[in-house]
UniProtKB/TrEMBL annotation:
GO molecular function: IMP cyclohydrolase activity; phosphoribosylaminoimidazolecarboxamide formyltransferase activity
Domain MGS-like: start-end pairs: 1-91
Organism of provenance: marine sediment metagenome
Name of protein: MGS-like domain-containing protein
Assigned GO CC terms: cytosol
Recorded metabolic or biological pathway in which this protein acts: Purine metabolism; IMP biosynthesis via de novo pathway; IMP from 5-formamido-1-(5-phospho-D-ribosyl)imidazole-4-carboxamide: step 1/1; Purine metabolism; IMP biosynthesis via de novo pathway; 5-formamido-1-(5-phospho-D-ribosyl)imidazole-4-carboxamide from 5-amino-1-(5-phospho-D-ribosyl)imidazole-4-carboxamide (10-formyl THF route): step 1/1
GO term, biological process aspect, one: 'de novo' IMP biosynthetic process
Length: 278
């Protein structure tokens, strides 16, 4: 069967999906394949059309966006993931070498196949969520899915005995939040409480254009000050509550210079956030 409709229909065919979905442990399935001259497919590796990359690169026409919606790819992924006891499904290039090495040593066990199937369904779910977000015109639709991707593990949750991780929302309609763009330069892993203080500090600083310093502790402002001289702004912020500031978070909306850094260094803080450090 040839591909048709400018390539819109290529893999949507019983010869493809029969070879993927047939259960190897059911003789009747294998008999049907043989009767219809369909070969089994043991590994499905799919790279989807770059829909998300296309619609987030700038102004894109609706026609271009629609042509980058993959139909056959997700269908093969779902078919293979459903039949994971018999099929290997791979959607992440990071898994190529790992799986290849295991195949060379013998085989991939059921537990690993199940993990790959989970990853495959999650991959397609995020892809479909992006398409739904792009086509949505309502602020509050009747149904909505939220796609999240883990940025990194946190040192701990609200308390040291709790585990936590930081996830970023994958939304093609909204730019990435400032909190997600922070780059850690040094120090231990960030904790959940650190992130809460970062968020509170950034929300406060967003209201100021003049050089401003905020000192946060458990989402409360221990001090806040603006001054043309950033070091002076820090000193005034610290004067708000120098006792509570200990172990908190210092945030600046300006590049931290050497003079300000020396002032900050006189007190212990969990973290310091700024556009840059000179």
């Amino acid at each position: 069967f040839p591909e048709i409709l400018d390539g819109r229909v290529k893999t949507l065919h019983p010869a493809v999906h029969g070879g993927i979905l047939a259960r190897r442990d059911l003789p009747q399935h294998l008999a049907e394949l043989a009767k219809n001259h369909i070969k089994t497919i043991d590994i499905v590796v799919v790279n989807l059309y770059p829909f998300i990359e296309t619609v987030t690169q700038g102004k894109v026409s609706l026609d271009e966006a629609l042509e980058n919606i993959d139909i056959g790819g997700p269908t093969m992924i779902r078919s293979a993931a459903k039949n994971f006891p018999s099929i290997l499904v791979i959607v992440d290039p990071e898994d190529y070498d790992i799986i290849l090495q295991k195949l060379r040593r013998g085989s991939v066990d059921l537990a690993e196949r199940k993990k790959l199937a989970h990853k495959a369904f999650q991959h397609v779910a995020i892809y479909d969520t992006a398409i739904a977000q792009y086509l949505s015109e309502k602020t509050f639709p009747e149904e909505m899915t939220i796609a999240l991707k883990k940025a990194y593990d946190l040192r701990y949750g609200e308390n040291p005995h709790q585990k936590a991780a930081f996830y970023l929302e994958q939304n093609v309609r909204q730019p990435q939040a400032v909190l997600a763009s922070l780059k850690q330069i040094s120090g231990p892993e960030i904790s959940f409480n650190n992130l809460l203080d970062f968020d509170a500090a950034l929300n406060i600083l967003s209201n100021f254009t003049a050089p401003t310093v905020a000192i946060m502790k458990h989402t409360n402002s221990c001090g806040l000050a603006s001054h043309a001289n950033l070091a002076e702004a820090y000193r005034r912020a610290l004067a708000g509550d120098p006792v509570a500031a200990f172990g908190g978070v210092v945030a600046s909306n300006q590049v931290i210079d050497l003079a300000t850094a020396r002032e900050i260094d006189q007190t212990h803080y969990d973290a310091i956030i700024a556009p840059a450090v000179s």
